[in-house]
Amino acid sequence: MQNKTVNNVRVGRFELLMDAGFGAQKAGDILIRAFARMGKYVFIEPTIPSEISPPIRTRPALSGVIIRVAEFDLANIGNNTDVILASHEVVLDRRLDDEEHNPNCRVLLDMCDKDLPTAKYDKVLQRVKDSGLQIFPFEVLPEAQVIIKSLAGKAKNMYYIGMLACIYNAPEEFVINEIKLTFGTKLKEEVFKKNIDLFHLGYQYARENVPFAYEIKNASGKNGHEKILIDGNSALAMGVVDAGIKLVSGYPITPATSILHTLAKVFPSFGGIVHQAEDEISAIGTAIGAYYAGVPAMTCTSGPGLSLKQEFIGYATAAEIPLIVIDVQRSGPSTGMPTKTEQSDLLSVIYGSHGDSAKVVLGVYDIIDCFYAPQLARYLAEKLRLPVFIMSDFQTANSYKVLDKPRIFAMEDSNDIPDFILEHFGLQRLPEHIEMVRTEQAVPGTPGKMRRITGLNTDQSGTVNYFSKASQRSHAVRNEKVHCVQRALKKPELFGGREEGDVLIVGWGSAKGAVEEAVSYFQNQGLAVSGMCLRFVNPLPLMLKEIFSKFKKVVTVELAYGDPYKRPPLAMLLRDHTLVDVQPLICRVTGRPMTPRAIETKVKELFHAAAA
Question: Which of the residues 225, 349, 495, 611 has the least number of beta carbons within 10 Å of its own beta carbon?
């Protein structure tokens, strides 16, 4: 097309919006793999409806992907969208409600349904124009419509892949290769050829009719390391394999289920077993029983399943049986919004079981953390004989990232955990001897080493003991295990290197990417702003109070609810731990990820208020 405007940018973000069940996520997977193979960095967020098979052309049916592409490493989904491609006006209207588009966003709207009696194209087109966005209505080429009709209305996502690949200057051969890898052995040859034809027609349409394109350079400064593209749940699954865990017991629950899916494919090759239990309670019971018998085991779940597991979590603490739990957080309470992200399980993980239930809680920053966290969790669980939690969330679980191929260790004995993993998580190696409530901790069947396992309170010999001194000692010993970890924690990294200043932004887990990018923005503006993100949220590092004292304001950012009468979980924990007036800056539960711009806006408000 003549007079096509080519935008040379370092980073871009676009969206594909369709009805559920028509392949938007699959299209996104194909595109990011093609971009990654070209040498670009990518970050993806799927938009998945909570309902199963919602009616098409309804607002709840919105399904899609948000893709960020860059010539540099990416740690979050970014702020706003440059290009939206929508399959019809209903999904576009729904997505515009989220207000995540740039002021000059370009909208490509398929007019395929314009003649339907229920169509409201005029209204939505006017909304787009009133918002100041650029609108580009289009119709699928007639020959493509014939192919789509022959495929029972499916495969239009291939046409859209072609359009977006052309707009973002992805060579056809790269994308076709990924389509072949995705569908080549699953479709009949005739059906596969039609899919490829649709891709070519979409590419051709965009080349000849779309008046804009984007050019993003391939990544520069390659470090010579082999790169991989992987999502958070797959990284957790492969980390489980590398950690030497031999049994994973779970019950299907969004968004943790794909951990089980991945392991079901690969685990048997490494001597592992995936057990799909009949419910959440039996899943954790199986994991505890396996570890009692000397087989490294874990269970994975999300919020509702966590609630059901609480009694067994307390049992593992009292019985001194190692336990690893992966909690992939989602919006709550109850069923909530299963396909939306949140960080609201923190208090239920730390304090959920009745009584004083000691445990260690890790929050993964990103996908590389997902791979190494199971090794650290196994080391801690076996060393302390306590429950250890790995806390992820929907965003991390489903986001793909290009990263250096992790170092493979294939751990057999948890005491041999590599130093680089401990260093990665900011932990010194624990003391060789850590006191237990019961002196005898042998694996069942060890000659002359019989021991009693019970949730009742016992003395050192393992005999049930209800006397006051025995109870006090048991509590003290269990908590001292956690204190051993706390004393071994190193000083958390301060983003930007500034040790003192006006504002310190504190997050945990997956907030890291947004916090780090926001801090970089402020330091480029010459403002005294630093950031910190915690991996260990229980116990917390001992030196936090000293760090906080060097900043005029300490604020938290977390995807958990708070208001003037109710502090969100992280702010509550930090205030209790440090007695510093930590204030929540962002405590929202919209189901959307944390963005750098949201943090930047709120911090600017702090500076304006201070200047007033």
Answer: 611
